[in-house]
């Protein structure tokens, strides 16, 4: 069938890939399966129920869930196929941002996952005139349940009305408004049409590696990145259009447990997760000591020298049997690929995972581009790049190095903000990504930094902080780092140590330090050791961009504290504000 609207993917799945475990969520310790037929039927019930509630095409409905789950997908289908616009919102944003987003988009109803989010929304409801009601997926005392909408739509006598509305929806109609989390200022609403999303799925699909020996009924993906983010949402539609069952992970904390249970072929990741997986592998590999640790470290040397796409040497084959096989088993044993986005992935780690038989395909995109602009694919991979741009897009590099893009997946402008829309496009209609990059002779795209994050020291030298930060995070001692120095005489850095690793180092070297994060961050021996790590990094940098001073922060940077975005990017303004005393100490 011809897919033109996002809800057509479910019809395609039912026609070509019907399965018993289309969507799977773990509840009370059990993986609860929803078949493709049940998914479509329940989506229709939601559509009929919403129409009886008085919802009309063009209305806005909010969706907020603490963790990805089947109910979210059913709501997405039921809402979209009657011409209503979804507004997916991150669960971790402030009440102030909820109020702004709901008022800006004039949300009429909202569906939330649990009692905490219900309480958050009901507290804000008085300041949101458009909001009529809030429903919950979990059973919450005193809260209307989403099952009430399902019950309203139980009778299928009004299905013709749903079908007629679906037929009338144009691919150029807005399907969703996604508010960018941003690192400063108010969130910006990004309206994406059905065609924006569908065209991106269709153009990205050829890049998805497939094992022709596997039947679609055997294919599984594990989802844990926020589905309200356009990256995971677009990937959801790709899974649906390929008959890949989608298992929703319980949480990021349980991802290790869930991946062993599900044994997926596909997963999307962000670089921070890859780094954590590698750290766990490294710690286990070196903890046993003796000959086992020596074999493990020898295998790492083999992996670091691997050239992607080249056949394995005899020694590599031995390393695979002794070590890398265990890496794959730790990730379920069935992975075809990990797809990485959101931020730059370490080239070294990318090569090592490829060498271990766990290929990571790094890509690049933004909410405004629905999202994929470019992505590596099997047979066409360059570590350190984000691949070749999709065939239906035009990409060029401006004179200042900024990447600009044009094509069917690029949005038309920010919601109710003509000024920001005008600023976002070139005179000939290319979207300005805000990222600095280059295209090599083979048309592979390389991202070097965020244009807005680059800064100039008082000496007039430009600093690209992400490049330095990515080098630094290869150190076992450094969990997070933010390079600073805008308008200052030199670059410095705020460092969040890996507290557990730093404490272990201290114990091994007879450095007496308490368990608390504050004590570890304040210990001069630990700081001196991390400064040695920084000196190693400085050897790879120009004199003007070398980090001159560091301060260790006494707490973990988290999403909940507002120091990281939901996709684990640094919220630079918030981090500087949180640790202003440490910043000032470096520039005394």
TrEMBL record:
Keywords (A to Z) from UniProt: ATP-binding, Nucleotide-binding
InterPro entries membership: AMP-binding_CS, AMP-dep_synth/lig_dom, ANL_N_sf
Superkingdom per UniProt: Bacteria
GO cellular component, one term: membrane
A Pfam cross-reference name: AMP-binding
AMP-dependent synthetase/ligase domain mapped to chain residues: 15-415
GO molecular function, one term: long-chain fatty acid-CoA ligase activity
CDD domains given in the database record: VL_LC_FACS_like
The protein's name in its UniProt record: AMP-dependent synthetase
């Amino acid at each position: 069938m011809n897919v033109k609207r996002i809800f057509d993917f479910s019809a395609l799945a039912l026609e070509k890939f019907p399965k018993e475990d289309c969507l799977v969520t773990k509840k009370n310790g059990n993986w609860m399966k929803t078949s493709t037929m049940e998914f479509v039927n329940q989506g229709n019930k939601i559509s009929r129920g919403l129409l009886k509630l008085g919802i009309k095409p063009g209305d806005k409905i909010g969706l907020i869930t603490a963790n990805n789950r089947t109910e979210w997908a059913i709501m997405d289908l039921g809402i979209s196929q009657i011409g209503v616009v979804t507004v997916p919102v991150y669960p971790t944003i402030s009440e102030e941002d909820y109020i702004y987003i709901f008022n800006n988009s004039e949300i009429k109803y909202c569906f939330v996952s649990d009692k905490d989010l219900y309480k958050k929304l009901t507290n804000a409801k008085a300041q949101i005139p458009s909001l009529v009601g809030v429903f919950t997926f979990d059973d919450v005392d005193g809260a209307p349940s989403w099952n009430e909408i399902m019950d309203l739509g139980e009778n299928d006598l009004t299905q013709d009305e749903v079908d007629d509305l679906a037929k009338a929806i144009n691919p150029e109609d807005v399907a969703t408004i996604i508010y960018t989390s941003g690192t400063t200022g108010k969130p910006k609403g990004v309206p994406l049409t059905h065609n924006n999303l569908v065209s991106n799925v269709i153009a990205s699909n050829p890049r998805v590696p497939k094992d022709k020996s596997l039947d679609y009924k055997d294919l599984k993906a594990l989802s844990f990145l926020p589905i309200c983010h356009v990256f995971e949402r677009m990937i959801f539609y790709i899974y649906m259009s390929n008959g890949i069952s989608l298992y929703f992970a319980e949480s990021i904390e349980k991802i290790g447990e869930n991946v062993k249970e599900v044994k997926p072929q596909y997963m999307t990741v962000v670089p921070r997760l890859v780094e954590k997986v590698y750290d766990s592998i490294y710690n286990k590999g070196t903890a046993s000591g003796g000959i086992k640790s020596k074999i493990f470290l020898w295998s790492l040397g083999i992996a670091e020298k691997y050239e992607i796409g080249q056949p394995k040497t005899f020694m590599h084959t031995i390393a695979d049997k002794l070590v890398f096989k265990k890496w794959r088993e730790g990730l379920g044993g069935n992975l075809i690929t990990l797809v990485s986005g959101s931020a730059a992935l370490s080239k070294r780690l990318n090569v090592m995972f490829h060498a271990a038989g766990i290929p990571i395909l790094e890509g690049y995109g933004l909410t405004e581009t629905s999202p994929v602009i470019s992505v590596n694919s099997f047979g066409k991979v360059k570590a350190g790049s984000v691949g070749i741009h999709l065939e239906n897009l035009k990409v060029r590099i401006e004179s200042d190095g900024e990447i600009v893009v044009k094509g069917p997946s690029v949005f038309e402008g920010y919601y109710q903000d003509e000024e920001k829309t005008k600023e976002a496009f070139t005179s000939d209609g290319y979207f300005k990504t805000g990222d600095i990059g280059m295209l090599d002779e083979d048309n592979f795209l390389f991202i070097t930094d965020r244009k807005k994050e680059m800064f100039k020291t008082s000496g007039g030298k430009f600093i690209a902080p992400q490049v330095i930060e990515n080098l630094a995070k290869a150190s076992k001692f450094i969990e997070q780092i933010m390079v600073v120095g805008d308008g200052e005489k030199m670059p410095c850095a705020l460092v969040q140590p890996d507290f557990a690793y730093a404490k272990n180092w201290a114990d091994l070297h007879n450095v007496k330090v308490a368990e608390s994060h504050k004590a570890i961050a304040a210990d001069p021996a630990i700081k001196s050791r991390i400064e040695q790590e920084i000196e190693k990094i400085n050897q790879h940098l120009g004199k003007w961009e070398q980090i001159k001073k560091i301060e260790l922060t006494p707490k973990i940077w988290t999403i909940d504290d507002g120091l990281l975005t939901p996709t684990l990017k640094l919220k630079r303004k918030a981090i500087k504000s949180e640790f202003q005393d440490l910043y000032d100490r470096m520039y005394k």
